[in-house]
Structure formats: structure tokens, C-alpha cells
Design goal:
single chain, mainly beta, seven-stranded mixed sheet, 3 helices
């Protein structure tokens, strides 16, 4: 049991003591809480080792499980590094050791087939971990320009400067529980709130204006103000541009599966000075 204490004690928080025991393996295997008699372990916070305690585990049952055998939402991952041969947690020939962490900080270990740990990890959760690595941000606005002067009724062309973190495509991978998920993200739309109550959604970065386009409307992303901003406190309309990222993920290691996610980035603010057209006599 000294070896067991060395493996399990580090997961105990400072606020309580963690006690573990090799407990009722037959019950644990029969009810599906463990996959091997040799590694059917219970853990509890305080109380009697292997017994029932508030917020802890019932003997042979993971912390949070109901009497009906329903398991809690636990995170399962392959132990890295694996226990050395002959160690207490040595899974034996043809198996690997896994670590299950359940709500409340209770951790148990068990043996299983490679890539087939008890409760499986939801690949969509791992996909979100990959998305978090990308640092997907809001658009880098090129137009309208803060120093620009625009006119009521005249087409205003709007566009952004794409980059990996502000428009994509961007990709990243994450691993957990024996699977690897790769996610690829790209902005699918940008919603422009113009500050005067109007808005426009553009399905692309927009088209950069050239003098040769004259007074024509932007073919991809534009707006016409109907009122000047002169009555505003600072003489400017205050707007925002908000990107929606479309993300496709797929399991690239340890199994199969794919899916889609969306991510809305923080809004990027902008200001516009809009004046009225002067008619010369």
C-alpha cells in the first residue's frame, strides 16, 4: 500500500486528505466502474478509506456515481509516462494504465486495452481545446479608416486585412484520452454594426477600393450612410465589426469522427466621420 500512497497522494488538495484502497474489485468490474479487478480502486475525501463520504467515492464506485451505477463526467487519459514493469500500477502484458479524474479532484487508475480507456472522451471537447490554441480574434479593419472622411449617400467600401489569427485559415491539434483531434478554422462572415442603427453582414473580407471604381458600390461589402455624424458628441459614428469563425474538426489519431463548431470573436470597434455633401452654386 506504500506504493499506492505514492501514486495517489499527489492528487489530494491542501484542504482535505485523500484516502484510497483496493476495494471490492468484483463489484467494481461487475457494475462497469472498473475494467480490471487488479486495478479497481476507490478514492474518497476523508472518512473511511474505500467507504462512503460526502463528496467522495463509494467503495468500488467512482466519485459522483449514483447508486444506480451511472458514472459521473470524468476525464480519462492514458498515463504518461507508463508505470515501469513490476510497479504497483504495472498494467501487465498487452494492456496500458489509464488515469480517470472525476469531479471533486478524485483520481483513480485502471488497466485497459491500448486506445480503449473505459469512459471515452468526447472528441468535440478535445476539438474545443484545439480551437482554444488558435487564439481566434476579431477582424483587422482596413476600411473604414479612422482618419477618413465619408459622405452621406456615397458608397463606402469596407474590407479587412486577413491574417491567420484574424481571418484564417488556421489549424491546431489537441490530444486527450488516447485520441488526437485536428481543427481548422476560417471566418465565414463579418457583421458590421454601423453605429447609426444600420448593419450589414459580409461573407468575405471585402474588396479593396481603387480610384478606378469611382462612385460604384462595393461588390462584396459596402454601406451608405443616410445621415451625417455632426450631431454626435465627437462628430463620429461608432460601430463594431464582429467575426464568426466556422470550424471543422476531425479525429486524426486514436479513432474516427468529425464535426463542426462556430466561434464568435470579440467585436472590433471603429469610428466614422460622415459629412453632408455640399452643393456649389
Amino acid at each position: 500500500m506504500l506504493r499506492l500512497a505514492r501514486w495517489v497522494a499527489p492528487v489530494a488538495a491542501a484542504a482535505f486528505s485523500l484516502s484510497c484502497s483496493v476495494a471490492s474489485a468484483d463489484d467494481g468490474v461487475r457494475h462497469g466502474w472498473c475494467t480490471s479487478k487488479r486495478f479497481c480502486v476507490s478514492a474518497s475525501r476523508g472518512g473511511t478509506p474505500g467507504g462512503e463520504s460526502s463528496g467522495g467515492a463509494v467503495k468500488g464506485r467512482p466519485a459522483g456515481a449514483t447508486k444506480g451505477g451511472k458514472a459521473p463526467k470524468c476525464k480519462v487519459q492514458r498515463m504518461d509516462p507508463q508505470p515501469p514493469p513490476g510497479a504497483f500500477w504495472d498494467p501487465g502484458e498487452g494492456k496500458v494504465a489509464y488515469e480517470r479524474t472525476c469531479p471533486g479532484g478524485v483520481t483513480t487508475h485502471f488497466a485497459g486495452a491500448p486506445g480503449a480507456a473505459g469512459p471515452t472522451i468526447d472528441p468535440a471537447v478535445v476539438a474545443q481545446q484545439a480551437v482554444d490554441k488558435m487564439d481566434l480574434g476579431g477582424p483587422r479593419i482596413a476600411s473604414p479608416r479612422a482618419a477618413g472622411k465619408y459622405t452621406v449617400g456615397v458608397p463606402m467600401w469596407m474590407w479587412v486585412n486577413p491574417s491567420v489569427t484574424t481571418y484564417g485559415p488556421n489549424s491546431a491539434s489537441a490530444s486527450a484520452g488516447g485520441i488526437t483531434v485536428t481543427a481548422t478554422a476560417e471566418v465565414s462572415s463579418i457583421r458590421w454594426s454601423m453605429g447609426d442603427g444600420g448593419s450589414v453582414t459580409c461573407n468575405g473580407p471585402g474588396t479593396k477600393y481603387r480610384d478606378s471604381y469611382g462612385m460604384s458600390d462595393s461588390p462584396t461589402c459596402g454601406y451608405r450612410y443616410k445621415a451625417s455624424s455632426k450631431e454626435r458628441a465627437d462628430g463620429r459614428w461608432h460601430g463594431t465589426a464582429t467575426s464568426t469563425w466556422s470550424i471543422h474538426w476531425e479525429v486524426t489519431g486514436g479513432g474516427g469522427g468529425e464535426g463542426d463548431l462556430t466561434h464568435q470573436a470579440p467585436a472590433t470597434p471603429f469610428t466614422v466621420h460622415v459629412g453632408e455633401m455640399r452643393v456649389l452654386d
